[in-house]
Amino acid sequence: MNPFPISKTTDPVPPICMSRRVHCAIMCSIGAQRPETGGILLGPAGSNDITDFYFDATASCSGATYTPDHITLRRKMKEDWLPAGLDMKGFVHSHPGGFDRLSCGDLVYIRRLLEKNPDMPFFAAPIVIPQAFRLRAIVVLASQLDIQRPTQLQLF
Q1: What is the C-alpha separation between 54 and 33, in angstroms, rounded?
Q2: What are the DSSP calls for 84-127, one per residue?
């Protein structure tokens, strides 16, 4: 069994629709740091658009893992983002070398978040490769929690 399943089917996969401002903020923060840093992707409730990004500067990061600061993120979600009409669309983080897919640990974490957020049809989980200064767009569908799907990044 492949520990990093990537769908190669022709099933429709939603694109990641992200503002150019957010893409720039991601690449200027996560893309400019050592691998295994990250942040939360946010956008208007009821939309799949990603219009906001929060760099998780207080996360627990090593050269091999990114663990979000869930206490700070939960507080900001409750106090700042939800009252402003924003909700979570996913997480973005970086990987070392050319490893541009989700790890087993990433998929476990995404599964938990999708199970806790049944209103999310999919989870945006792009991977940044700082060494190459690039972003690979990946989503996980709520209906297929164990499969990562490469997709298109649509900037607006």
Answers
A1: 15
A2: TTEEEEEEEEE-STT--S--HHHHHHHHHHHHH-TT-SEEE--E
Tell me if 138 is assigned to some domain: yes
Give the domain extent around 139.
16-155
| pTM of the shown model | 0.91
Residue 10 has pLDDT above 70, yes or no: no
Report the SS3 class of residue 66: strand
The region, left, alpha or beta by phi > 0 then psi within -120 to 50, assigned to residue 90 is left
- Does any domain span residue 4? no
How big is the CA angle at 116 (ends 114 and 122), to the nearest 5 degrees?
20
> Is 2's pLDDT higher than 50?
no
Q: Determine phi and psi for 72, rounding to 5 degrees.
A: -65, -45
pLDDT per residue as tens digits for the range 106-124:
999 999 999 999 999 999 9
Here the CATH number for the domain that contains residue 68 is: 3.40.140.10
Please give the distance of CA 138 from its chain centroid, rounded to a whole number: 8
Query: What's the total number of domains in the chain?
Result: 1
The token pair at 126 is 């792009």
Q: Considering the domain boundaries, does residue 9 fall inside one?
A: no
Residue 25 lies in a domain: yes
